[in-house]
Amino acid sequence: MIKNIIKILWIFLAVIVLACVTVFFSIAKGWIGYMPPVEDLENPNYKFATQIFSEDGKVLGTYSFSKENRVYVGYNDLSPNIINALIATEDVRFAKHSGIDAIALFRAIVKRGLLFQTNAGGGSTITQQLSKQLYSPSADNVMERLFQKPIEWVIAVKLERYYTKEEILTMYLNKFDFLNNAVGIKTAANTYFGCDPNDLKIEEAAMLVGMCKNPSYFNPVRYNERSRGRRNVVLDQMRKAGYITAEECDSLQALPLVLKYTRVDHNEGMATYFREYLRGVLNAKKPVKGDYRGWQMQKFYEDSLDWENNPLFGWCEKNTKKDGSKYNLYTDGLKIYTTIDSRMQQYAEEAVEEHLKELQGYFFKEKKGRKKAPYSNRITQEQVDEILTRTMKQSDRYRIMKKAGASDAQIEKAFNTPEEMSVFTWNGEKDTIMTPMDSIRYYKHFLRAGFMSMNPHNGHVKAYVGGPNHHYFKYDMAMVGRRQVGSTIKPYVYTLAMESGYSPCDEARHVEYTLIDENGKPWTPRNANTKRYGEMVTVKWGLANSDNWITAYLMSKLNPYSLKRLIESFGVRNREIVPSVSLCLGPCEISVGEMVSAYTAFPNKGIRVAPLFVTRIEDNDGNVLATFSPEMEEVISVSSAYKMLVMLRAVINEGTGGRVRRLGVKADMGGKTGTTNYNADGWFMGFTPSLVSGCWVGGEERDIHFDTMLHGQGASMALPIWSKYMVKVLGDKTLGYDESETFQLPEGFDPCKDNGDVNFESASETGLDDFFD
């Protein structure tokens, strides 16, 4: 009887062993469940975020899908602390097994399965956990769940065959999702502690490894004490494994859990407007006219030019990988090296915030109690209501309700029903109660800004600010939006005059001038400046004082079509510029980026440099895929460029730009202020020998503006931002900009005379201050 029982047991055991062998063999062959191909095991299909680097080596941000914000880091760039913490906590015999830890598995079966001990520890090795992360799909039924573990075991054994222990650890840490859009150890270290993985301290590494058990439950942002407790468990495991001493463990466990949490979001961090602009440029598709609406023909024109002439535009669409597929900005782990300097970018963002915060207070005060606020009293209440209604219909809330079948009455009621919300203020988000319609009006109160700064010699864009806050105000006013430029267009008029034979010393009578347009209609510009009325004044004086009458006088001697062509040669691509006599006062719309690029011709001997945003693109392994060089074009003669230098310096030293000096900028510079009708737009363009920067400030729409010149002119709205930025830049000696640097003229050059015999290639120690003293 006993022999029969033993025989049956041996047969039963043999059947079980045979069944297990059959199951595992079938799994390995892919007959049961899912088994990835061998080539997938050798080359896991990782998705890595693209990194955007500043010129000085800082990471400005990443491009990724929401669940794949992963940046690859190699084993040699991992701190030993993170490796030790991971092995001690998750798989202490990691170096001794080949994918499956039999001891840990047996312990887990006995203690958990038979004795029901919840604190018995898991049986999964790091390799098994990696196989689950890489290849294990979610189980939809009991049968799939039954085979899930054996499948993971088989994959784990294969992973051990194809990879070294170091590679498995590296893959695991690169793959794990640490929550808060921090996928992979590199992003996690930066997100939670503001450092790279090789700089993680022991207690920091322990906290991150502690999250591996259950990142949602041990989320340090939401549950600090709970995460601290889990961190201390990891530290104790490190003590048991001999990685730290008992004394170190005690002292580290006593530390509070302190984070340097930085939210990973395309709306957060540095250079948000720049990063979004660059994303659109890199991902651009080949323009097809049928894809553009009638009012987008200007955009189609610009995109068509960029597609043909700008190698960065549509780069991901134009270039392919070795396998013939196009580059994916979100998953291919590209490294994009930009021309932005993180320090200068920070100074630009600080300057915009500091001044707009102050200026906004004046604007709120001016509009307080006005029924039409923030709009000017120049428009009717009906027009205000029409604008606000149009904005409402462009909102996501309206589109969602309309798509859901809500009636106009229901939508109107919803937009006029108070509700809790958080709104933007210059002192941080504020919780309040207001109707969605009131929130639309509230946000229209805020003044917008655009700022860009670039090197006039190589086109490198050093700073780029498209608005006050990308989270709340998406529209980019640096390179995308265009506004009327007002008097900042006058240097083009004076340049055309210099090209036509005039000099800064030529004189005109300071009186009103009436010009006749192509339709035979008279046009007489107004002038804020009545000083020296009836006297003879120089052209230089006219530009320095932004005098409309002297500008009109020059326009009477020039051709509007020639002026339009000159403006276009400076890099302005707005096809809607009208070649009329009034063009000389800047009614046309131009972007900040176009204006900054155009002004590079003045300190650069007549050569305009197009903005250069990216110097090179590398793949995930550091191989250079593309390099980019500046686009340069001679737009005016060297002689005219020097004459314009003389006059644009006078704007600062003798004219409307003098406030720059009072705000602390002592550098040799030229510039031009600009204000459009009714103070709708405030501009300032300024340049030193090594840096050209421009700024625009205004409302979201032209009917949102200051009613008086006190705060509404360009010298009040835009110039202070430029000045604050330059004071910071010149004060930072690590940037290499010298406040004592001066413009130089060639030997023998005289801006008041014919310079046909001057050698413009010669250098001179003669500065511009030697003229007009």
Automatic annotation (TrEMBL):
One Pfam family here: Transgly
A single cellular component GO annotation: outer membrane-bounded periplasmic space
Segments passing through the bilayer: 9-32
Gene3D superfamilies tied to this protein: Biosynthetic peptidoglycan transglycosylase-like (1.10.3810.10), DD-peptidase/beta-lactamase superfamily (3.40.710.10)
Domain Penicillin-binding protein transpeptidase: 451-690
Keywords associated with the record: Carboxypeptidase, Cell membrane, Cell shape, Cell wall biogenesis/degradation, Glycosyltransferase, Hydrolase, Membrane, Multifunctional enzyme, Peptidoglycan synthesis, Protease, Transferase, Transmembrane, Transmembrane helix
Molecular function via GO: penicillin binding; peptidoglycan glycosyltransferase activity; serine-type D-Ala-D-Ala carboxypeptidase activity
Main location: membrane
Recorded metabolic or biological pathway in which this protein acts: Cell wall biogenesis; peptidoglycan biosynthesis
Residue span, Glycosyl transferase family domain: 57-238
GO biological process terms held by the UniProt record: cell wall organization; peptidoglycan biosynthetic process; proteolysis; regulation of cell shape
Family to which the UniProt record says this protein belongs: In the C-terminal section; belongs to the transpeptidase family. In the N-terminal section; belongs to the glycosyltransferase 51 family.
The protein's name in its UniProt record: Uncharacterized protein
Species assigned in the record: Bacteroides cellulosilyticus CL02T12C19
